[in-house]
Amino acid sequence: MPRIDGSRLIADLKRMADFGRYKTGVHRPTFSPQDVESRHWLAGRMLEAGLEPTIDGIGNVIGRRPGDGPRLLLGSHTDTQPQGGWLDGVMGVLYGVEVARAFQEDPATAGVGVEVASWADEESHYMSFLGSKSFVGELSEADIDATRNRDDGTPLRDALERAGFAGRPRIAVDEQRYVGYLEAHIEQGGYLESERRRIGVVTSIVGIHGYRIRFSGVQNHAGTTPMPIRRDAGVALVRFCTTLYERFAAVSGPRSVWTVGRITLEPGAPAIIPGAAEMLLQFRDGEPATMTRFEETLYRLVEETNAAGPCPVAVEVLSRTPPTIMDARFQAALAASAETHVPGLWMSMPSAAGHDAQIVAHRLPAGMMFVPSIGGVSHHYSEDTDEADIILGCQVFADACWRILAAARG
Ligand SMILES: [Zn+2]
What we know:
Strand content: 15-25%
Number of domains: 2
CATH class of the largest domain: Alpha Beta
Helix content: 25-40%
Structural class: alpha+beta
Number of helices: 12
Distance between the termini: 16 Å
Bound molecules: zinc ion
Number of strands: 17
Oligomer: single chain
CATH architecture of the largest domain: 3-Layer(aba) Sandwich
Radius of gyration: 24 Å
């Protein structure tokens, strides 16, 4: 089994955090000068690990292994949230580089097909999962033309030009080349910590549904309109909302979450009965059946509300991403590896956040592994993970890669 070098891994993670350092974290938005610099540095580290690195036309850094035989693609992202953490995404990419080095150094595994990718713009400065979408063939040239930076409006074409990546070919997935895709990531939540487990084997990446729910009432004078004849859209919304929360609780799974993130009353004045009211609803779960139950519950309540009156309600679907189930063989390999290194101290769990693995899974079998996040904090510069957990996670990950590749080689 390949042995990873923990101190070399930590040194690489710390070096990467120099690109755009912000307090104890990192500010490295996609295609910022610091991000572009870090991509070139990463390509250099891939080269030292015996890989052939390419930065492609969308900014993906992909290190390919020369030779024949089955290959496993390891990856995540190296762009960060604004004033984000030093491990979100980066850890998974540098795990890949360390695993490639460990395989190369062991005569028993030298030349075994581990390849590494850093997907561009997972964090959505231009488009969420930009790089992994390009890799799986879900990003057209017209999409690139139409995409701008969400903060300053810079066209993506200009950013690619400035970064020096414009005009390069984009690398597309070759399904024959790979056994599959494996991604390691910090948990970004607090389940592993509260359960006192050191490794999470991801079962699925949560699905997310978003809806705009709009109630139509009759706007009128708040002093002269008697209560019995009012058609108050605000009251209709609040009743609907509390009933929905109760009914969702009755059909939810252990990790289900649902949120009304915005409520607006129109026109929104103290002396006016609201003529319209709107709420934005989102729910997430890792189980397709639970997502279906939520959806059915929502539409049943809409029907009941419309039948009962007095304010009609209409639903608009804003997003509808199904859960992505992780490959069963990859889950088993990660679990077996975790059980070898930390018996009883790992758990299976869904991912409550989105990851590139859910995009790559459209074309390749995919798996994911988590390490604990201290205090469940992420998307903040204070994000951190115990050094011992970072190192353990990489060894478990390397072991799982070997199990998967050894099985594929027969
Ligand atoms: Zn991430």
